[in-house]
Amino acid sequence: MSAYIFCIDSSSGLPIFSRKKGNVENLPFSIKGSLNGVHMYGKSLNVELLNTLTEDYCVSWKECEDSVVLVGISSGCTQEVLNNLLTSVFNAMVLIVGIGEIKSQRNIDRLKRELKNCYPLVDRLMDSLDCGGTTNKYYSDLVGLAECILCPENHLIQILLESYMEYVDSLYSCVLIHGKICVATESWWSLDPEEIKLLSLLALSDGGTTKDIPIFLPYKSPTMAFRFVACTLIPDIQICSLCGPTPNLIEIERSATQCFKSSTELFTAALHTHPRNFPLTCQIDSGILGLLLVNYSSGKYMISKNTQQNATKKIASSSHRLDILRTFYYRMVMFYLMNDEDKKRNDVDKETGRKNDKKKAEKEQSDFTNLNDGKETYWCSEYHKCHALISQENILCVLYNSSVPTFEMRFITQKTLKALISDKQICW
Fold first, then answer.
1. Which of 21, 91, 97, 376 is deepest in the core (most CB within 10 A)?
2. Kind of pairing between the strands at 221-234 and 237-243
């Protein structure tokens, strides 16, 4: 897997930043100039250049706010995933500097310097193209969705979080375990899934250090800054909040210590859920090699390899299992089960980001209705099988051992989905 993303000023054609993924050389300036030039040429003729395919690569262009052009190049990636990734990259830019700074561009050199702070976010977003190639063996990603961990202690952690909210006077808070959302407030889940995802990635940047920085929410507040605070409770566990100017960071850290001081054993037990990401008490069929649970209502997902299964020669590694699940989700679930027109409207909503909550809710309900028109799909190969089942706003993708009979997959998937979403203690 190799990929490039670079950003160019729309009016002057000056490069703003460039990032790459994989063991590849830097992209020559001549190629960058040519890719930008063909986009500018089409624009002069009132033709919008969106994407093209070569034998090995997919190339996509996205002009944002008539200010910057993002170009993405990737191997082994669908056009839809690459387009969504470019949208996420632009949202990461807005998160750090705000939409006003990008649109005005009074000083291109200053913009370049400020956008350096979004490089860690862009790099993590590019990992969504290929989880198997990431440096973190437990890390996985899906474009536009926030990753969760389903701990049996979640209901107790939720109670502690609500108590903490009163101390910091914030409605927007969440607890992260290994960068995955353990629990969050209702207001946090009301944010756009892109915003939730980017805030989780931001908390992990710079090694998960304490943060107290201004950020702009790409959809909720692209012009007015919020205060983002992330504190580490114990290693690998963080609490994140969107706060007002008060209290100060020292008082927030003191409040976090006071609220969670008696919960060390609780968090230690929750940490044991990683990297399985769902409770050991949730028994699943021995033929299951991996799970991907998605909830489109709140824009979240949980992905797991079955740690009770040892990797065999037929299934090379656990990271390969996650790759198979993500590929199945992108190529089968998103492509075949989601209505094309709804996907187009969703892309428009992502670009404008200015729909009111009522229209957004109506659209989501329409998405779920169309998803239910096709409730399941499956893959079969020599070494494994995949099956996806849709139930209301939940989608469960299951990776099976090839020995599991095809006719049994539906029953096992239904049983597994019920076990995961019916347990109120894990707060799905």
1. 91
2. antiparallel
How far from the centroid of its chain's Cα atoms is residue 90's Cα? 14
- Rounded to an integer, what is the distance from CA 57 to the centroid of its chain? 23
Look at residue 143 and tell me whether its pLDDT is greater than 80. Answer: no
Q: Which residue is listed with tokens 């969670």?
A: 260
First to last CA, the chain: 33
Residue closest to 247 by CA, chosen among 202, 212, 196, 200:
212
Buried b (16+ CB within 10 A) or exposed e, 108-137: eeebeebbebbebbbebbbbbbbbbebeee
Q: For the segment 340-397, what is each residue's pLDDT rounded down to a tens digit? A: 335 444 444 444 444 444 444 444 444 433 444 458 889 999 889 999 999 888 999 9
Given a contact cutoff of 8 angstroms between Cβ atoms, the answer to whether 5 and 122 are in contact is yes
- Please give the radius of gyration of the chain, using alpha carbons only, rounded to the nearest integer: 22
Q: What is the pLDDT of residues 19-57, one digit of tens each?
A: 998 888 888 889 999 999 999 999 989 999 999 998 888
Distance CA 82, CA 233 (A): 36
Q: How many CB atoms lie within 10 A of CB 214?
A: 12
Strands 384-391 and 376-380: antiparallel
Task: Count how many residues are written for the chain.
Answer: 428
Q: The dihedral of CA 283, 288, 289, 291: what is its sign?
A: negative
279: which residues sit within 8 A by CB, 6+ positions away?
Answer: 150, 151, 152, 273, 423, 426
233-284 confidence digits (pLDDT tens): 999 999 999 998 989 999 999 999 888 888 889 999 999 999 899 998 888 8
Please give the biggest Cα pair distance in the chain. Answer: 66
